[in-house]
């Protein structure tokens, strides 16, 4: 018999969801059968699996050691260590200034991502244990392209992860970006279109009119400064699709400096030769939380966080005379 007590990072989820993490290799039919036969109980009673767990709940598994070991075996949670630029931290949330070149989430390359770095950071601090990782893994709630820098929000606790994810899903957090684009723009504008994603090529196409399988997009931008050739823009997303800012602005004739996927070769070459720029200049510089927030994240209500610009972005703004007042 195995006995477990539900901890804070396991509370708030359905019992069957918890069991699917604890018995990661078992088919769902197995633990539903065990629940029916009372071989798995919650607080000493028969359970169905749809109960919402609370901290302190007692879970008992009347299984042989062999069966438990077979179904609970799991790969060691991936982790990595680096120095994180932490903008804000509390018991539930981490806000981090991600550098360009770092993945937000794991992909097929097996290269460490922000998720692994967050796990490594919390393990080093002693706020996370190997035992915790059996049933809960911290993660990020918003995604930035690998070569886009700026604010990433991560949930340290299950409650933090759930509430943060809901805020991003409902688009109640306001995200603002800075970028440098080709051409002179002088007026604030709200642009709309349709975005189609080619998953095989990892590239999107923008259309003015609705197309089959294309998703509606909306982007707002405000020019901050120009030098007669390029413009520093503040950009907001009404929708948040893959490569939206990069592709949408390029479709308007204003590609981002350094963007090799949607940009212009001659334009990029100038910045590569002068500044050794090898990626798009796009930085998620501000994240604002709505007023009136309740629950575990209430301390973030109405607050605004800003991520300092990368040194290379700062240098380009200065040398291109694009508004040093921002720095």
Main sheet makeup: 11 strands, mixed
CATH top level of the largest domain is: Alpha Beta
Distance between the termini: 61 Å
Order of helices and strands: EHHEEEHEEHEEHEEEEEHHEEH
CATH fold assignment of the largest domain = Pseudouridine synthase
Helix content: 10-25%
Overall residue-averaged pLDDT value: 93
Number of strands: 15
Rg computed from alpha carbons, rounded to a whole number of angstroms: 23 Å
What portion of residues belong to β-strands? 25-35%
What's the shape? elongated
The number of domains: 3
- Flag low-confidence runs: none
Q: Helix count?
A: 8
* CATH architectural group of the largest domain: 2-Layer Sandwich
What does this structure look like?
The chain is 24% helix and 26% strand. The chain is α+β, with helices and mostly antiparallel strands. It has three domains: 2-72, Structural Genomics Hypothetical 15.5 Kd Protein In mrcA-pckA Intergenic Region, Chain A (Roll), CATH 3.10.290.10; 86-169, 2-Layer Sandwich (Pseudouridine synthase); 174-326, Pseudouridine synthase, CATH 3.30.2350. β12 and β13 form a beta hairpin. It is elongated and about 75 Å long.
Set down the secondary structure blueprint.
Layout: E1 2-5, H1 15-22, H2 28-36, E2 40-42, E3 45-46, E4 58-61, H3 65-72, E5 86-89, E6 93-98, H4 114-125, E7 139-140, E8 149-155, H5 158-169, E9 174-182, E10 189-198, E11 203-207, E12 215-226, E13 230-237, H6 244-251, H7 265-275, E14 282-288, E15 304-306, H8 311-319
Parallel strand pairs: 8-14
Antiparallel strand pairs: 1-4, 2-3, 2-4, 5-6, 6-8, 7-8, 9-13, 9-14, 10-11, 10-12, 12-13, 14-15
